[in-house]
Amino acid sequence: MYEAPFKSVLIVSPNPTSGETTVSIEPEVTKDEFLKSTSTETTLDENTEWDIEVYDNMQSLKLKKQKLKGKSTRIGTQSWKEGVYMVRVKYNGEILTGKLIVK
């Protein structure tokens, strides 16, 4: 049986935000994996580089960071207009997307 490499999920917190938010990449854990012992935990490779882009509601690039390491980065949104932004992350061959609400 072939097992695909683990998938990742994008977490944006706090969301909504008015000042600063953290974008994190976490391994996706299924119910079965969660119920297994912790000896088979799935972890992210903290040395793998990843990129993040944030777009406003007009699909204009608002922020771009490249070659990040670790599982998270902070984004300052103090000067951003209120609205919904699209967060796009490229990590380990995957494209992860999410929404960020700025108030």
Which helices and strands appear, and what pairs or packs with what?
Layout: E1 8-13, E2 20-27, H1 31-35, E3 50-55, E4 61-68, E5 72-76, E6 83-91, E7 94-102
Antiparallel strand pairs: 1-2, 2-5, 3-4, 3-6, 6-7
How does this structure look, described?
This protein is mainly beta and 103 residues long. Helix content is 5%, strand content 50%. The chain has one helix and seven strands, in the order E-E-H-E-E-E-E-E. It has one helix spanning 31-35; strands at residues 8-13, 20-27, 50-55, 61-68, 72-76, 83-91, 94-102. The chain has a four-stranded antiparallel β-sheet with strand order 4-3-6-7, with no helix packed on it. A three-stranded antiparallel β-sheet has the order 1-2-5, with no helix packed on it. Strand 6 (83-91) and strand 7 (94-102) form a beta hairpin. The longest helix has 5 residues, at 31-35. It starts with 7 loop residues before the first strand and ends with a strand.
Taken as a percent bin, the fraction of beta residues is over 45%
- Inertia-based shape: globular
Average predicted local confidence, pLDDT = 85
Overall helicity: under 10%
- First-to-last CA distance: 47 Å
State the strand order across the main sheet.
4-3-6-7
Pfam family, one: Por_Secre_tail
Protein name: Secretion system C-terminal sorting domain-containing protein
InterPro entries: Secre_tail
